[in-house]
Write a structure and sequence with these properties.
The structure is a homodimer of 247-residue chains. Chain A has 7 helices and 9 strands. In chain A, helix 2 crosses helix 3 and helix 3 packs across helix 4. At the A-B interface, helix 6, strand 9 and helix 7 of A face helix 6, strand 9 and helix 7 of B.
Chain lengths: 247, 247
Amino acid sequence: MHFSSEQRLDGGVLERDFTLGGIPGTLWTPEPAPNPTAAPTPLILLGHPGDLGRMRPRLLGRAAQAAADGFATATIELPGAGERPRLPALERARTELRRTMQAGETVGPDVIDALVLPLVDAAVPEWQAVLDALLALPGLGGPVGFSGGVIAVVTRLAVVEPRLTAAVLFAGSFVPAATLAEARRVTVPLHVLLQWDDAGNDRQASLDLFDAFGSAEKTLTANLGGHTGVPQHAGDAAAAFFRRHLR
Amino acid sequence: MHFSSEQRLDGGVLERDFTLGGIPGTLWTPEPAPNPTAAPTPLILLGHPGDLGRMRPRLLGRAAQAAADGFATATIELPGAGERPRLPALERARTELRRTMQAGETVGPDVIDALVLPLVDAAVPEWQAVLDALLALPGLGGPVGFSGGVIAVVTRLAVVEPRLTAAVLFAGSFVPAATLAEARRVTVPLHVLLQWDDAGNDRQASLDLFDAFGSAEKTLTANLGGHTGVPQHAGDAAAAFFRRHLR
């Protein structure tokens, strides 16, 4: 893990950009750093739909909230997104998705599988590698949360990664049938945000996915509004979920 | 309004039983009473499915939470329930409901209408009369919330009673088609609790009702578990909703 920049942000956050095996990412930690002899700082991995440059303002808000709660946060660029090399299979799938939507056709299961499953296979080992590197840093450790991002990626990670202890999911990305099946094997506590009027999201598919998760503790919070209209109080409730499970 | 008893409970709550025109009820206020020259204490009306004696322990918990937040709470017995005279039409509808359920038949719209609509017509003017009397008491005033109870009653009250400014609904009671239509005229902020595995509740009907409410701000919070298994954090989120809207 190579740190390439470091800056102190308003509100008590230290931001450090890094690369790990060619994957760019950012780590945000509370400032001043907690006493190293105290309990290690819990970590929340911040998911997003790809393109870190575009997503940074929204990620910063989530990082600042987490830092105020005493948590570190980190994110990495998704495979094939932002400044990273394109993945030919993903590019073909995206071209097909655009064609389907421009033609006003329904986005079928084949298109969804082609778009999401290669991303899951590529992204999950990367999240695990960055988790290894982050938890080796002084002061970081303890329970790990995951927040947002591509639902199929988080679902797979929750199944294969025992260090993950709680996750906030944001309904709104395509869900392959394989993910729905995988969801039954997820057991960590979940907090699922659903925007009731999200034009790009199939509401019934989100409800079916919530129903499928095997977790004994899961909460669905639905609010009026579109994809980017999550109200402040819903963000507060998600933060309260992490405080319950990561402290 | 005639007060018949008064006792101080642990945790800073004054409990006073009252009757108003033959309707028994209870008022809980924070202790010590706020400075009378300060802003008046907001009031939350506590709904329930009927039979105050049986419901009192659960109502007490909600009253104590509200008092800790600086709110008064009050409840009254439902028409035809507890110690109040039976209502023949309601009794006939309940007999028919029991017969239907024991025969394993689906509870149809006629049974639901007969069971709920007379209750709405009888209960709503009573809630309004008790609200008149409560808001005339020294120190009480300001915004009024409603929490729980029979959904059709709260929906009607939210349409006809301008003093109501926010409501927490607990999905799980039968919803007549007339209530679904009335829901579109509700405009106050709503916080709807749904227990995902409530055996006595039609999940899809609850989702349809949430969708129908005309309110510009509405939140659905669904948690795993049966009707009485609402987790502590869901109660906390409902309390936070009232803090946002009644303070």
